[in-house]
Amino acid sequence: MIDHFEIKVAAFEECRAFYMNALEPLGIELKWSDENAAGFGLSSEPNVRFLIEKGVSNSTCHIAFSALDKRQVTTFHKAGLSSEVALLTP
Length: 90
Hints:
Blueprint: E1 5-9, H1 12-23, E2 28-33, E3 37-42, E4 50-54, H2 70-81
Parallel strand pairs: 1-4
Antiparallel strand pairs: 2-3, 3-4
C-alpha cells in the first residue's frame, strides 16, 4: 500500500492552484504549502498523501485519483478544465 508520493513540477504555483481546484471534488485538500512544496490529503484525515515540489523532473509520471462515482469524475474533470491545463478525457 502506498503511503504517499511526490512529484517535481517546473511551474509550481500553477500546479498548486490546479491541484487545489481539481482535487477538491474528490475530497482532497491542500494541507500545507510553502514557496517550494505543497502537500495534499483527504479532507477526512490529517495526513499528506500527495506532494508537489518545485523542480525539474527527468521522467513522465502517471497519477490516478480514486472517485466514489461518475459525478465525482465529471466534477473533477470540469474543475481541471477550468484551470486551462491539457487533460485526458475521463
